[in-house]
Amino acid sequence: MPYQLLRFALNKKYPEPCMFPTPERLKPRYDVVIIGGGGHGLACAYYLARDHGIRNVAVLEKSYIGAGGTGRNTAIVRSNYLTPEGVALYDESVRLFQDLSDDLDLNLFYSRRGHFTLAHSDASLRTMRWRAEVNKHLGVDSEVVDRQFIKAKCPEIDLDCGHNAPVMGALYHPPGAIARHDAVAWGYGRAACQRGVEIHQGTTVTGIRTEGDRVTAVETNRGVIETRCVLSAVAGYTPRITSMVGLRTPITVHPLQACVTEPLKPWLNVIMVSASLHIYVSQSSRGELVMGASLDPYEVHSTRSTLDFVEGLAGHLLELFPFLWDVKLLRQWAGLSDMTPDFSPIMGTTRIDGFLIDAGWGTWGFKATPVSGKTMAWTIAHGRDHDLVKPFRLSRFEEFDLVGEKGAASVGH
Amino acid sequence: MKLLRCPINGLRPIQEFYYGGEYRPMPDPDASTDAQWADYVFNRDGAPGVRLEWWYHLASGVWFLAEHDTARDVFLRTFLFEELGQG
Ligand SMILES: Cc1cc2nc3c(=O)[nH]c(=O)nc-3n(C[C@H](O)[C@H](O)[C@H](O)COP(=O)(O)OP(=O)(O)OC[C@H]3O[C@@H](n4cnc5c(N)ncnc54)[C@H](O)[C@@H]3O)c2cc1C
Hints:
heterodimer, A: alpha+beta, D-Amino Acid Oxidase, Chain A, domain 2, eight-stranded mixed sheet, 12 helices, 20 strands, B: mainly beta, Folate-binding fold, two-stranded antiparallel ribbon, binds flavin-adenine dinucleotide
């Protein structure tokens, strides 16, 4: 190595850039312990420190930052949901995304694309209309469009789908976007650390101690930590954590798979979803087609990928875009999705004092990273559920007060 | 290809089956409180491990039970409902 270069490498003024300092040991006590270093846990830590001055916070991550759904999702951001409660929550998140790159001083590659949900039948066109009306009523840009409109925005599409299930129209949501998912986690993590939060990777929570109905400590593979406030933000691992405190939930865990093709020249500017064909696709800034389908059909806690999935997906992709027949798949992977019966999250305080939950994010939680972090931080700081969180409380099930989003969340994540 | 053993039709590709959820005995609707009923309707044992599940063979219309390890995705045994409790 030339001397001029070596000088810089050894100079203390230019230390190796490091996004997250690695604290040597756990402190014996934290004001708040967050389980899970995914986007949600890190965002909550950030807003706790930034908005509420709560800095004695530890984020415990059993693996590495973004190892869960955060680093595995297909990064779709949208707010064209079906219920007023859902639309309000997700729309706040879309709003928070707008200046997040500035806020976190990191390019999140937030890219507004326009989001189409295709309707292949009268029945789905009716649901689209319903969604569009709810959306418009709440100020969300969303409308039902006809075939000509779709063709104009995406000339490559075969609207007749090989004459199997012709497209009749679509729900169009111009603010629909994609973002770089890892960067969201890294950005929140770094900004939280800069404000005093500690991130402990390689730290697994193995138990939660309670006295009466109050949290007192968290047990980890690296020792016991005293705390009176624990947030569980572990998505697909939630049932393992809730069973530590004896909470029953409706969460079941299914794998969700996705894949990308080799990079192509840019041709697809929009996000295209077809619930009937069980497929959605967008093109990343690298040119890869990022594609996914609906959930794996049965419960498994494993991130294996299957041939079934790519076979089904590739077949349906060719119905919409026949010219892709010779494009190669590059990668395929899976993540764990924590599913709820009404396709809405479970958030907020629980009957156990000091145990809060942020889960049930299933296949739709990436877009909610900012809003969940912000509202859960508020909920921790105030000791009661934030208004946006209230409809999603765990007790809604025993109160038979569900927030049904299946019509807007089952294939389009 | 993943295979599952239908108690009537033998080993078949898993695509021929439909998953019917965790097996849970139903409490007496008249004797349970609203909270107990809601617990039955909504709550599940979502943690990984071995448990009983309902499965349906689409081609022949057979409902049966499967002992499934959801951590390893291994089916330990399958049997008809009538045989439940007979080991
Ligand atoms: C293939 C796929 C595609 C998706 N597409 C989209 C999409 O397009 N749009 C969208 O909005 N959503 C999408 N999602 C959903 C989204 O990825 C998740 O809802 C979201 O990432 C959840 O984030 P999180 O921070 O809550 O959890 P995660 O990112 O899963 O983080 C949880 C963390 O907790 C850690 N953990 C678990 N147990 C313990 C323990 N005992 N101790 C310490 N740490 C622990 C895990 O290692 C993990 O890192 C998709 C999901 C998948 C799998």
